[in-house]
Amino acid sequence: MERFKSILQRVPRTLYRLAYAAGVAFFLWNATQYYIPGKGFTCLIFFGGASNVRRIRELRSLDYYVDKDSNGYDGQYYAQLAVKPLLRSRDLAGAMDNLPYRARRILFSWTAYALGLGQPAWVLQAYALQNILAWLLLAWLLLRWFPPTGPGNLVRWAGVLFAWGLTMSVREALMDGPSLLLIAWGVALFERGHRWSSTCVLGVAGLGRETNLLALPALAPGRDWSWREVGRAAGRGLLALAPLALWVACIWYVCGQPSNAGVGNFGRPFAAYFGKWFDAVRDYRVNGWDSSAKWTLVMLVSLTVQMLMILLRPQWTQPWWRVGAPFAVLLILLGPAVWDGFPGAAARVVVPMTLAFNVLVPRGVRWWPVLLLGNLSALSAVDQLRPPGIESYRIAGPVNVWRSPAQEGIAARFGDAWYQPEKSHLEYWRWSRGPAEIVIHNPQPTPVEVNLRFDLRALDVRTVRVLENATVRWAGRVDRDGTAVMIPRIRLAPGDNRWRFETDQPSIVPEGDTLRPVAFNLRNFVIEAVKELPAPAGVAPPKR
After folding, report:
1. What secondary structure does DSSP assign to 452-474, as a single string?
2. pLDDT tier, 344 (very low <50, low <70, confident <90, very high otherwise)
3. Which of 315, 437, 445, 467 has its CA 20 to 30 Å from the CA of residue 333?
4. Co-location of 213 and 360 in the same domain
């Protein structure tokens, strides 16, 4: 152990600074992948396109990213609040699933409205981007507790910034990341002796998310329990509670109904927590390591280690323990609505506990197992920050073969039975609902010979047939391991060429995705142009 410690101490600090810079560069590189021409960064907001999802009038004339096969996620509500932050619009109430509940978390809708200068298109972009800005500011602020001086600080710094909860906040444009920034800022001010400034920051944070007020014990006395100090702490606490109390009263006045806590957000201690463990283990046994179960189990291990370390090692004199302990208790009390689905909201709801854990874990080699297990969820960052798919196919081969004299290239159109494209850093794919069509358009006036290359995968075992018009070009068994397909020497006639993918089994509903029954997915679809074929009789070859 001592030898290992001495080796780490000899590593130049410049290397640690470079590692920090690499972490920021990795984040920024991923963030830029979310930009879609014409739509900006709106794919971060996750607007749903299901028929039951409604929109405010201002969004009808805007071009923004919509996941057509889903109900969307929470960010779509707060983004619309940002466009209309005064709550009096009738269509705003119709676009919300629970206006009083959503409006209670108004702060970052206000900031987006201000940053977007009240222009709906700009406001949407500002709302989508403010999580990225908050992440960068938090990365800088965390240097106060985790300067680039050693491997322990590097793990703590990266463990917070790439934790499941924080990356999810960025990926779905939620308020948890900006909220953590305000909490960290408030605690930093308190540690510097700026008690009333800290109170104001934490009070404002309560308008971003009401659970942010669980950080208020940081304002309590650490050692001095005199009546005078207790009275001052109580006064600071009441001041911090005032903004949210006044805003809730305004919501009640405008909306005419109280702001409830959300159905299923709380439950019996540990009930939903152990339920999540049970579901994750069952999912792993049924679907294996390639399923979402691996990241769910990793997340649960991290949260459990963080919770136990904080609750079993009370450190009242430390402001960060006074922040982390209430969130550790909150984790125990969260209900099924917060744990349900993949990935679930619990990790982001208690993300202040993650920061508190990393500040409080003692230094020293013997604490490394605890530190690493508590930050295990950072391994999911590569998957969590994966941008949405845009491409569904690629064209390969000589350009003069697949591109017409009018500079129009071979293109593929996917039918309605395909879901929207998805991608990882190495692959791209589309799931199908069942039998599905692709139309490959050849813009050339002459036929073109192509090879088709792709992979097929399914969650079960099934047979898939690939037909060109009524002719079967390929048929085979498809399962979780994937099947590589190569269909050579295909003659693409000028104009549209219809291909159909059929299967012998009905669609199935994946665990945790009840809105999207799937049959199989088409991965890494490549149309490889080989050569031009002779033109039909009476058709002159194109001029080059």
Report:
1. EEEEEE-SS-EEEEEEETTEEEE
2. confident
3. 315
4. yes
